Amino acid sequence: MWEEQQGGIRVTQAELLCKDGCGYYGNSAWQGYCSKCWRERARKPEADRRDHGSQSISGSSMTFSKFEEKKSSETNRRTSAMKRLFWGSPSSSKRPEVSDSQPEALQGFDTLEPGDFTSFLKLLRSPSSQRLQSRCSAFLNTMEAYHDLHVEKQADLVQEFYQNIALHFSSLSEAKVAQVMEHMEKLIMTRLHKWVFCHDSCDDEQRDLTLQRRIKSLNWVTPQMLRVPFPDGGPEVSDPYLHAITAIIEMDAKRAPQDKLTCVSRCCQNVFQVLASSSSKPACADDFLSALIYVVLSANPPRLHSNMQYIIRFGLPHSLRSGETGYYFTNLSCTVAFIEKLDARALNLSPEEFQRFMQRRQQHDNNHTSKPATAISTTDGGGSGSSQQSSQTAAPNGSSKGQQRGREVRARLEELKGRQERVRKGALSLQEQLQRWVRDIHLQLDRVYSASHRDDLTATEVRADDDVEEEDDNSARYREVLVLQDEDAEEACKNETDC
Question: Is residue 221 scored above 60 in pLDDT?
């Protein structure tokens, strides 16, 4: 016997914070720690392994020790070579260099408006920022040349680059440094996106497929099961979370981690707006998490795991550890973890009901792959129909509601099928009318062409007759002139004879 129905999904503020108590937001990808504490804990085992390896070299064979030494030296050489390409020789430990011209070069960045990425690029191309631009270009070229490195090593290099660039702007205020670093992150990661996103050295692609199948198998989960608050009318009228669903889907189209976080923030803000309109009371964290789970299940965002890992690895640390974006991203991580571990107790169902829903979904997928026109289940006719009907009558109220919901969906599908058939017939009729119209146009054009051709022939004949008449008139005038000339000549001869 499962426990009585709970009051929805419960989450406290303490569960969202780092386990070490540093005050920053934790993340399920870091086992509940923030990015800073997680990296510190990850470095300790590596240091212990190096110490243990140095102590055990004397007890191991000479061949193995030489192999390990050569391998570690090769790794250190490659890493140090990359760092020298980024920052120069290791002896220059006095970064950043504070010169008289540096404050003048940073004045333009101090007056930079939030979100004005175009002005940031213009400042970066200015002569005063030539050294900074050279460092960025060298880093990008080297990362592209070493794109076959493990994605975690690439993430460490990018984070180290962020730290050194932040030191370059250390004379600015903290808010301005954060603003400039957001532009710098967009510049760097837009170039590196095709090299580091969903890298071959990790299993992000496989995790994406697994999560996508998991979300697809849970599409039978209703808002009532999650206790999602809805405004008046409910989800049957119109889905008020449509803008949030669209925003979370758009995350995959962005390249920079900050732009992806902006999509997450816009999604969560739309969720809070819907929650505020559904009740006069302020929205609590439990309602927000339930609504966000519903949004993710409805959207099934493409490559969700890869996008979240991309933000974790290559995003700015302060955007994930604190602030509004950190809170939203932490809730999104909790949402994904909840979906991956979703069971009957979380939905206030019995294990038998939960298993029945999952089996029906699997049967639905199998029917669609083999016979797309076959329905999921039938309640009339045959022994199987009677046995299924008896099992449905024995099911609790939650199961009957789900069956009613399924019947409504099937009715809507039949209605849509009828509409589609009417649209198809209308399209065929419109196509026939269009063909007849085209034929009529061609016939009219032929008539106009033939009529214009006849008019041209008639005009040509008229012009020919006019030319003949004009020639006759000219010849007659010419003859008259000749006669007059002859008469004048005879008269002149007579006068000469008389003389």
Answer: yes
